[in-house]
Amino acid sequence: MNIAIVCYPTFGGSGVLATELGKALADKGHNIHFITYQQPVRLGGFQANIFYHEVRVPTYPLFDFPPYETALASAMVDVVKNQDIDLLHVHYAIPHAAAAYMAKQILAKQNKKIPVITTLHGTDITLVGRDKTYSPVVTFSMEESDALTAVSKNLKEETYRNFKIDKEIDVIYNFVDVKRFHKKPIDAFKKLIAPNGERIIVHASNFRKVKRVGDVIKIFQLVAKEIPSKLLLIGDGPERPELEAMTRDCTNKDDIKFLGKQEQMEDLLPIADLFLLPSEYESFGLAALEAMAAEVPVISSNAGGLPEIIIDGNCGYMSNVGDVIDMAKNAIKILKDELVYKEFKTNALKQAERFSIDNIVPQYEALYKRVLQ
Ligand code: GMT
């Protein structure tokens, strides 16, 4: 198939998932055309059947807000026509689903029928999308998509709760390439971070409020009192300055490192002993799944779709949002006993395998076939 994928090219989960999906489909012989404003961060090197089409948004003095959606719809029309595209798969409803609807209408006038699949990722529904500024357009473009998917049952329920739509939503869980993340930790790197064999605790996100990174630091403080540990904070975002200020006040500030945005998560995660994700909401929690694939147990909140991914007391623990004391208690439970720790590690990998690329990608291919029929 010739498939066009529209996504955010950034470190956010939706862009990561869309890029990994494109790469997996390309490996299976499909031709994949990414349409976005920057090369997606996870795209990596050259592959013969992966193409990247950059959306350019020319500025003009009149434009306080350059019309990205118009430029994107025009780019979709161009790529679909000239690359003989069979279907458009857009990730994150805003503004991609609306731009795809526009492109579909333009192409219909030119006698080219193009099915549109929209994958909902989370904040496009739970935070931004349901805001009345956007919701009429989001509702309409979801309804007009030829197929609608959500990355968890929870997100499907949230969508029906927040929007008046009749459209059937297929749940297709996010996935991970287990082989890529299940690697031997780089010893030299581990020694550099934890020279005295301290436990390495990791959090990775876009440092938005919804991630509650402040809770990560609080949990770490409680754990570090009992178990010598180091904290790695991976990613960047609006909350970072405040978090750095919070860290400067900690007596053990040298044990906390902000690594910024990192592309090689498959090299970083294997050196971790524990992954923290105390979010206010996660539709899925792709970062936690990647950690589990690297054999890292997860301490998280029990919000949104996380209970669909993490088995409490097996590959990690879940607590109520904001209950940092319980989260720290559970973290210590896993880290202080080598036997327990090993068991959680093994279980984490087993659980990640349930969401392996080989199980999930065929579900997207089956959906594509259904839509094309
Ligand atoms: O985590 C984020 O805020 C980024 C966001 C995105 O759309 O880029 O992530 C969402 O999609 C990911 C991939 O499907 C999910 O794993 C995340 O749970 C989800 N984030 C939220 O729901 C807050």
Written description of the protein model:
Strand 8, helix 9 (213-226) and strand 9 form a beta-alpha-beta unit. By secondary structure, the protein is of the alpha/beta class. The two termini are 13 Å apart. It is 45% helix and 17% strand. The mean pLDDT is 96. Strands 3-2-1-4-5-6-7 form a seven-stranded parallel β-sheet, with helices on both faces. The protein has a six-stranded parallel β-sheet with strand order 10-9-8-11-12-13, with helices on both faces. The chain folds into two domains: 2-175 and 356-372, Glycogen Phosphorylase B (Rossmann fold, 3-Layer(aba) Sandwich); 178-353, Rossmann fold (3-Layer(aba) Sandwich). The chain is globular, with a radius of gyration of 21 Å. Bound molecules: ligand GMT. Ligand GMT is lined by residues 12-15, 17, 92, 121-123, 151, 174, 206, 208, 210, 281-286.
Question: Descriptors for this entry?
Answer:
alpha/beta, Rossmann fold, six-stranded parallel β-sheet, binds ligand GMT, 45% helix, seven-stranded parallel β-sheet, 373 residues, 2 domains, 13 strands
Record the SSE blueprint.
Blueprint: E1 2-6, H1 13-27, E2 31-36, E3 50-54, H2 68-82, E4 87-91, H3 93-109, E5 116-120, H4 123-126, H5 135-144, E6 147-150, H6 153-162, E7 169-171, H7 178-181, H8 187-193, E8 199-205, H9 213-226, E9 229-235, H10 240-248, E10 256-260, H11 265-268, E11 274-277, H12 286-293, E12 298-301, H13 306-309, E13 316-319, H14 324-336, H15 338-354, H16 357-372
Parallel strand pairs: 1-2, 1-4, 2-3, 4-5, 5-6, 6-7, 8-9, 8-11, 9-10, 11-12, 12-13
Helix pairs in contact: 2-3, 3-5, 9-14, 12-15, 14-15
The chain binds ligand GMT.
Ligand GMT binds at residues 12-15, 17, 92, 121-123, 151, 174, 206, 208, 210, 281-286.
